[in-house]
Amino acid sequence: MIPSIDRSPTRASQANAGTVTDLDTRVGATVPLPGPDPELEAIYSQLLERAPEGRTAVLNFLKQYANGDGALLYKTAQGQMGILQKMLASMKSRGEEGRPEYKVLSDTFASAFASNALIQQFMQDVFSPEAQAELEEDSGW
Question: Is the pTM of this model over 0.70?
C-alpha cells in the first residue's frame, strides 16, 4: 500500500509564507560571481602588444608562453583556442570589439580552431581506419 502524502505546510514554508524573493536574489546568494581570471590577466597586455604583428606572431608567442614554473601553457591548438576565447570574451565585455587587435585575435582563434579540427580528423583517421575503409567501400554504390 502506498502511504499518503502529508499536505500540511512545513515549518520552513510557514516561516517564509509572507515573503517573496525573486529568483535572481535566491540564485545570486548561492552562486558566487566569477572574479577576474588570473590566467587571463597575466597574458592580456602581452597578447595585445603582439596583435599588431599579426596572427603568426600571436600564435608563436602563445606556443612559447611559459608560466613561473617554466611549463608551456599554450603549446597545443586546444590550449591556444581556450585562452584566445577568454581574451575575445574579455575584450567584448569591455566594449573593445572595434579595435584592430580584436580582429587579429579573432583571426588567430579561427586559425587555431581550424588547426585543431584538422588534427582531430587526422587522429580519427589514424585510430579508426576501418571506418574509413567502410566509407571507401560504400562510395562506389
Answer: no
Q: Tell me what pLDDT residue 7 has.
A: 64
CA dist 88 and 62 (Å) reads 15
Residue 27 covered by a domain = no
Residue 14: pLDDT over 60: no
Q: Distances in Å between the alpha carbon of 24 and those of 27, 30, 31, 85, 113?
A: 5, 10, 10, 27, 35
Question: What would the mean pLDDT of 104-123 be, rounded to a whole number?
Answer: 93
Please report whether residue 110 resides in a domain.
Answer: yes
List the Cα angle 123/125/129 in 5-degree steps.
130
* Grid cell at residue 18: 509572507
Q: Is residue 31 part of a domain?
A: no
